[in-house]
Amino acid sequence: MRTLDEILIASAKRHKHLCPRQVLGARMGLFAAELLGIELPSRDKRLLVISETDGCAVDGLIAATGCRIGSRTLRIQDFGKVAATFADTYTEETIRIIPRQDARLVAFAHARGSSNRWEAMLLGYQVIPLPELFVVQRVKLDMPLSEIINRPGRKAICEICEEEIINGREVVNNGVVLCIACAGESYYHHCSADFLPVGLFDRTRKL
Question: Which residues 6+ apart lie within 8 Å of 81 measured at CB?
Fold first, then answer.
């Protein structure tokens, strides 16, 4: 297993600099692996990470765990929290880790020579004992792990938009196969009933 320093160097390279939340993400990943008994970096898809932010902490999580969105071992549920859930896909043991509410104050106590609050958090988060830095909760996912990660090759066609759906993400409503967007949970809406010809798309024109 790599050292924290090695992991933070890798995270900083990905992120273009090192910040306190990357340190939190990295240490959350290391702590979770220790508690679940999983070797890092994960190469066999045994570890699934669900991050509750899409910000800086994610780069720390990636550097520590080796989990990635492209390998379907990292998911983002953007609740705006520096928190993450870690699931052992072999045993289905699942834990959620969040920083303690007084983590910033504890960081100041561990980095008294720091020139400012940001530096105190950056340095303090690296040395605070893990039980003083994080809260660990045992949790159960609302969706079975088998439905989250084990449907490669499965395809369906939405009966409304006729777009292809992969990995079992279709919704069946009264016998009708729908994509999640057509089922009413879309994150976008169409601005026009017409499709834009790609070659004629005018980026200067307001839609």
Answer: 52, 53, 98
Q: Does residue 42 lie in a domain region?
A: yes
- Within a domain: 207: no
- Distance, CA of 67 to CA of 85 (rounded, Å): 13
Q: What confidence tens digit (pLDDT) does each residue in 98-129 have?
A: 999 999 999 999 998 898 999 999 999 999 99
How much is the pTM?
Answer: 0.85
Question: What is d(CA 206, CA 73) in angstroms, rounded to the nearest whole number?
Answer: 38
Same domain, 14 and 113: yes
Taking Cα atoms as reference points, which of 88, 92, 99 lies closest to residue 52?
99
Range of the domain at 184: 151-200
pLDDT digits (tens, 9 = 90+) for 142-160: 988 887 876 667 899 999 9
pLDDT digits (tens, 9 = 90+) for 22-63: 999 999 999 999 999 999 988 888 999 999 999 999 999 999
Would you say residue 205 lies in a domain?
Answer: no
Q: Are strands 47-51 and 74-76 parallel, antiparallel or unpaired?
A: parallel
Torsion angle (degrees, nearest 10) of CA 68, 8, 12, 69: 10
Peptide bond into 20 cis (omega under 30): no
Q: Are residues 102 and 188 in the same domain?
A: no
Provide the number of structural domains found in the chain: 2
